């Protein structure tokens, strides 16, 4: 996986292109959060201040800042000027400025924040820190389609952990791209990982057209696993970029 270390100016985002921007959270951010609150609108700020766990608060804060600064790379709007609406399932989208055509999705976990942005397509991204988990089989039986669970149980023990997170991130990316979250049954669709690109099939519990979806899997760091879901068919092109270069200013002014 190649992640570009660049900070391009405002640029046009062509259809069928998806830019995925990443921030590696480390001690730098705990020391330099002053001023980041200026990027947030009143609702975001209120929610941020309710966090009691420092790491969870930082993930939330940097996620909102990353969304705003990312969108402002493609539209000449100050990061603090973006306004968002949330649908009935809690999925955010752009309210103002209107007519940009941009869609985005955000994910964060311990140590990493990710924002995917595209134009005119549904997009979902999920990133997880692939911790060893003693209850992988229990979680798979509870949440996954039977074929996925069988695939995990049939794998050698040393491969089950990796396989679990492959399925988990793909499923999360899909339900986020649909904008419905866990209102969609996770066992209502199944992924086939036997091919270079993941393939999905649907049941009557979650009807959809598999031909309109493309999925991507990556390892942005040694400990993180990422999956991306994009609708629209065609041949989407994905680019991964670090949002912050080492030694550079963290973000532009809000």
UniProtKB/TrEMBL annotation:
It comes from the Bacteria. Residues 123-201 form the 4'-phosphopantetheinyl transferase domain. Keywords: Transferase. SUPFAM superfamilies: 4'-phosphopantetheinyl transferase (SSF56214). Residues 39-116 form the 4'-phosphopantetheinyl transferase N-terminal domain. Pfam families: AASDHPPT_N, ACPS. Its EC number is 2.7.8.-. One of its GO terms (molecular function) is magnesium ion binding. GO terms for cellular component: cytosol. GO terms for biological process: lysine biosynthetic process via aminoadipic acid. Belongs to the P-Pant transferase superfamily. Gsp/Sfp/HetI/AcpT family. This is 4'-phosphopantetheinyl transferase.
């Amino acid at each position: 996986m190649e992640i570009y270390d660049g900070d391009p100016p405002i640029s046009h985002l062509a259809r069928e292109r998806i830019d995925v921007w990443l921030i590696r959270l480390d001690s730098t951010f705990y020391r330099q959060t002053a001023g980041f609150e200026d990027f947030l609108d009143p609702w975001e700020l209120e929610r941020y201040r309710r966090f009691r766990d420092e790491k969870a608060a930082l993930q939330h804060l940097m996620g909102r800042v990353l969304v705003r600064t990312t969108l402002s790379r493609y539209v000449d709007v100050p990061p603090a000027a973006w306004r968002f609406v949330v649908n009935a399932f809690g999925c955010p989208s752009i309210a103002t400025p209107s007519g940009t055509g941009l869609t985005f999705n955000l994910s964060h976990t311990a140590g990493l924040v990710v924002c995917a942005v595209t134009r005119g397509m549904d997009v979902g991204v999920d990133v997880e820190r692939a911790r060893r988990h003693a209850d992988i089989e229990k979680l798979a039986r509870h949440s996954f389609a039977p074929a996925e669970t069988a695939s995990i149980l049939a794998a050698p023990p040393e491969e089950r952990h990796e396989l679990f997170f492959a399925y988990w991130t793909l499923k999360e990316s899909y339900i986020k791209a649909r904008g419905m979250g866990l209102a969609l049954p996770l066992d209502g669709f199944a992924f086939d990982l036997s091919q270079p690109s993941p393939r999905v099939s649907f049941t009557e519990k979650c009807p959809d057209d598999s031909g309109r979806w493309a999925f991507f899997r990556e390892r942005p760091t040694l400990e993180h696993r990422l999956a991306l879901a994009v609708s629209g068919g065609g041949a989407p092109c994905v680019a991964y970029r670090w949002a912050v270069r080492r030694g550079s200013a963290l973000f532009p002014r809000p």
